[in-house]
Amino acid sequence: CAVIGECSRATGLAFAESAANLLPPLLKLLRGASVMVIADAANECVRQMLTHTRAPALLSPLLAGAANRDASTALRCRCVTYLHLSLTTYSTETLHAHASPIGDAIVGALSDAGADVRSAARDAFHQFESRFAVLAARLRERLPAPARKML
Prior knowledge:
The chain is mostly helical. The chain is 79% helix and 0% strand. The chain has one domain (2-150): Alpha Horseshoe (Leucine-rich Repeat Variant), CATH 1.25.10.
């Protein structure tokens, strides 16, 4: 994982194709790793890939992981946290094509059964709102009253 993170840091966007191929197995490690060292290494690797590569292809697995109710709560929480990181580090132009699915994933996470997922979704929604104010306002209107109150 450390080597993958370093490759991402050193090569940036040129690492995009490799990062897109490596992300799904890394997310599986986060879901099923009973050894915390493995999960922590995979988490750090994913964070480095998102921070340094900033490839739009990395968003699809994160959106799927955030919306997957069959996945573990920890994985859903991490995926929402990664979406927040993407909203922080990616350019608005890169995110623009994915703004609607990202917003929908965050709104879905606001109603998640896991408290950690909901907390991460609140943080992500505020970052989303700072990037896409009009879309965030429309999404906020569609939220159920309890979720709107949480924000």
